[in-house]
């Protein structure tokens, strides 16, 4: 009789597609290690992962469904929704108990979903935000936010940080600079793109690839701005709309193509050819362009302090160009970005593989003692 494969529930946050895309290398590594991933997601994240892993087992798990406004700053919007978000954390914590039983789950990997831990089942939190930055107007709440995040991190048996412990690293203050929870380890940058196959011929199809991402309504606003300002003279451009589904590439005018979605292998091949990338400063997108060594223009989602911090830090370091969405001038930004060096950080696959090995051992031996606290939320 063949040995039963460990069943591991993988649950990305529904806050943009980045949490789903960075779960792709985790799911691949789980399969390589002999585990059977069960993917729990919602909305576009569900659709994207279904396209990447058509043979995997899926379950629908309702996301947090954060809403944004065109007029109210994102930080204020999130603050106003905090009671509902905390209720969602509590609700998913109760839901997880039922899923563990009904799906016969041996471990849980949660990407930034703070309620998905269980005291008797190995539980992993993936996050790069150990030190969350509230909006400047709400900085008085920073100590409270810090304590709340650490409270949830310590409910999990493992906390995996998708970054490097030493310089150069990508997340800066967000996951460095303070004493780490004892269950924390760095697993290297996570990229869904495979390493460049030897002798693969690089054909540069586009000079610029613009990647649209993030929640509405800002996703559509960003797409409209890109459509209005691209292409610059003499450069061939592609706008990737970030909407899983149709993969047809359509020309909307000379030197400007658009597509809803591209599978990882095709997008990886495009980025390896060296186009300039225009994108949000979402952490998952930054990991991908850093491992592919692209030059980039970063336009943070207005009001998202994490993206604003990352964009400003990388701009001041002379690596990428950062621009505000409300006064974006792509012609000027492209000229400046082409003079910047970009960033190249090798993907350390062995760090992720070591973390998964430790998880698999814990499944056999039982969860580590003394990390996940007894009781419920």
From TrEMBL:
Signal peptide: none annotated. Residues 268-337 form the Glycosyl transferase family 28 C-terminal domain. Keywords: Glycosyltransferase, Transferase. It holds the Pfam family Glyco_tran_28_C. Its EC number is 2.4.1.227. GO terms for molecular function: hexosyltransferase activity. InterPro entries: Glyco_trans_28_C (IPR007235). Transmembrane segments: none annotated. Gene3D superfamilies: Glycogen Phosphorylase B. The keyword Transferase applies. This is UDP-N-acetylglucosamine--N-acetylmuramyl-(Pentapeptide) pyrophosphoryl-undecaprenol N-acetylglucosamine transferase.
């Amino acid at each position: 009789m063949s040995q039963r494969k460990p069943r591991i529930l993988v649950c990305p946050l529904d806050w943009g597609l980045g949490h789903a895309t960075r779960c792709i290398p985790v799911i691949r590594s789980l399969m390589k290690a002999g585990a059977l991933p069960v993917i729990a997601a919602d909305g576009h994240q569900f659709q994207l992962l279904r396209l990447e892993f058509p043979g995997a087992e899926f379950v629908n798990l309702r996301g947090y469904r954060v809403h944004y406004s065109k007029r109210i700053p994102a930080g204020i919007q999130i603050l106003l929704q905090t009671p509902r978000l905390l209720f969602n954390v509590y609700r998913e914590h109760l839901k997880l108990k039922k899923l563990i039983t009904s799906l016969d789950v041996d471990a849980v990997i949660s990407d930034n979903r703070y309620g998905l831990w269980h005291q008797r089942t190995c539980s992993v939190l993936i996050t790069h935000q150990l030190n969350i930055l509230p909006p400047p107007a709400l900085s008085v709440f920073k100590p409270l936010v810090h304590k709340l995040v650490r409270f949830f991190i310590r409910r999990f048996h493992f906390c995996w940080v998708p970054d490097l412990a030493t310089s150069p690293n990508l997340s800066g203050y967000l996951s460095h600079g303070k004493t780490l929870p004892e269950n924390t380890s760095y697993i290297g940058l996570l990229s869904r793109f495979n390493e460049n196959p030897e002798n693969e011929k690089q054909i540069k199809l586009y000079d610029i690839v613009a990647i649209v991402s993030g929640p509405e309504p800002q996703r559509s606003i960003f797409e409209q701005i890109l459509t209005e300002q691209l292409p610059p003279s003499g450069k061939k451009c592609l706008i990737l709309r970030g909407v899983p589904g149709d993969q047809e590439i359509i020309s909307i005018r000379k030197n400007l193509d658009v597509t809803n979605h591209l599978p990882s292998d095709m997008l990886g091949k495009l980025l390896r050819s060296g186009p300039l990338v225009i994108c949000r400063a979402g952490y998952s997108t930054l990991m991908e362009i850093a491992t592919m060594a692209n030059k980039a223009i970063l336009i943070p989602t207005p009001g998202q302090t994490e993206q604003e911090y990352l964009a400003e830090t990388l701009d001041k370091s002379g690596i990428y160009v950062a621009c505000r969405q409300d006064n974006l001038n792509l012609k000027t930004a492209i000229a400046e970005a082409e003079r910047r060096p970009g960033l190249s950080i090798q993907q350390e696959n062995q760090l992720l593989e070591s973390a998964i090995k430790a998880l698999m051992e814990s499944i056999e031996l039982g969860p580590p003692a003394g990390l996940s606290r007894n009781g419920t939320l």
